[in-house]
Amino acid sequence: LASSALAFNGNVGVSVRGSGLRRSAASLQPQPRALGPLPSAGLRSHVHASSAIVGDGAAESEPKKRWLPPANELKKVLPLGLMFFFILFNYTILRDTKDVLVVTAPKCGAEIIPFLKTYVNLPGAVLFTVAYSKLTNKFSRENVFYICLVPFLLFFLFFAFTIYPNQASLHPNALVDVMAAALPAGFAAPLGIIRNWTYALFYTMAELWGSVVASLLFWGFANEVTTVKEAKKYYPLFGLGANVALIFSGQYVRYVSGLRRVWEASAAVTGIAVDPWGKSLKYLMGAVAVSGVAIIALFRYIQTNVMTDPECMNLGAAKKQKTKTEMGIGESARFLANSPYIRNLAILVIAYGMSINIVEVSWKSKLKMAFPNPNDYSEFMGMFSSVTGAATLVMMLVGQRIFKVFGWGVAALVTPSVLLATGGAFFGLILFNDALTPWIVGTLGTTPLMMAVLCGAAQNILSKSSKYSLFDPCKEMAYIPLDAESKTKGKAAVDVIGNPLGKSGGSLIQQALIFAFGSLAASTPYLAGILVLTTLMWIRAARSLNIMFNEAMVNDPASDM
Q1: DSSP states of 197-212 as a string?
Q2: What is the rounded CA–CA span in Å between residue 480 and residue 133?
Q3: Whole-model pTM?
């Protein structure tokens, strides 16, 4: 009884201290009803204190519970985090594989990437957006998720087990050789797409996995089941598990690269012909398929156990969000064009795509020069992905603190600032290569080429880690206060078209500069200047969107519930 009285007095003391109702423990024990005249605030404190006493030490264990989400939130957060884990596990494998296939393909190189993004990826994204708009008007969100996801998994399996083994009969090498002899040398990259069209198709599907499955399907679903208050706490942490996936997938790619060496050595000993890349693709795409099944199972679990639980969801709001509005793609485009909020979001996505593409293509051209062998290239990309995942884990922890202390506006400015600084350093190293060569060789003991590769890798790692930890959560939080129409149609247009449009915009700039100056290397000073202008435009849009986001939160307080 004495310990309960002390606990009671400690809990009540804060509320009654200012009301002149302090009492000793001795006076409270025999006369518990003396608290009857307390004001309402005191009564609430009395109730909270009593509940703490009944828990038999629950008050003492309460600080420990703060490290875990409440049970109703954990029921949502855990499967969503696992979904994101498997989605990025697949994306990392697909990203590394598509680069190796395209950059090291016969009579191809990094110069093919700008043409792929402009003339293959962008049309594919537009066609998907049209199809997605029609699907959302005809089917439920759950069925749209399955309809969009399953074809990706089937294609990647079909590519590894059927398309790649028959590439010799599928690629029109003889026809392209005739065309190349008749056309100027500037057509080498477009002809490379035709020559290796199955690789180009794989590249496009892998790119769409990131914009469709990761950005559109996952984040659209996450925005449906979470509030802004929950998003501020957990969106930065979703990437913790997801970037553990980057580490695991990067190491898995390196493991498969090691198997290729074993298979090559075995073939040399036995004399039996073997295609190491063909075998490794089956391992890689098999892992993608298994991970895809896990994504579907987790999504189904949330649909059946979370979306129907009133402890986890505001079912009235959920039903309201499911109401469809019939809106054609043209009308949707006009609606979005008239929305400054959505325009700013689109500028953020487009500017990121342009900026990262401008730097990345130049880096990959250096990377192929340093690692011309596909196996070495793949192994380096596996290590690159693992380091990116580790760096992003650190940035996730820092990002949660940035959101909590500085808010959405500051968090949205980190990624463009990082990209501007690191991209400037990378281009500076290339532009002043001759002046820096004696110092690089004499002091650092490496070659200028390898220094450019490492500097570009550092630039990509820092840019991508800040994107995953801050840019993506900021972008997704910005959708939550919007109405259902803007969320669905706006997100489809911004994510599925905006991202490829940004990369295609960067690609078009690179194509024009290559034709004007003869090579990617000769275009470097102009690419550096365009990078600066793009990131400054990005920063301006982020500041404008921050004002609109805060106003939307004030006007729609229910979104923060």
Answers
A1: HHHHHHHHHHHHIIII
A2: 19
A3: 0.69
